[in-house]
Design a protein that fits this description.
Blueprint lengths: L5 H20 L7 H17 L11 H7 L1
Length: 68
């Protein structure tokens, strides 16, 4: 956080973790850490490859990445 504009960089990560918490973790309580790990792994794959994002013109992040 020592350079100009560095405080803005964390906004994207904070939004991503907020989305995971509200769309997966709070909706699917887990019994142990392994179940939570596997669930988050599943959700991150879904988030990047299947979930459409309004900011990407309703495309997936993976589709945008492959185009480049």
């Amino acid at each position: 956080m020592d350079g100009k504009g560095r405080a803005i960089d964390i906004v994207f990560i904070e939004r991503f973790w907020r989305t995971i918490k509200y769309e997966y973790i709070y909706a699917n309580p887990c019994n142990d850490g392994l179940q939570l790990f596997n669930g988050i792994d599943f959700y991150v794959t879904y988030y990047n490859q299947e979930r459409r994002h309004q900011s990407l013109e309703y495309s997936t992040p993976y589709a945008i990445y492959v185009k480049k």
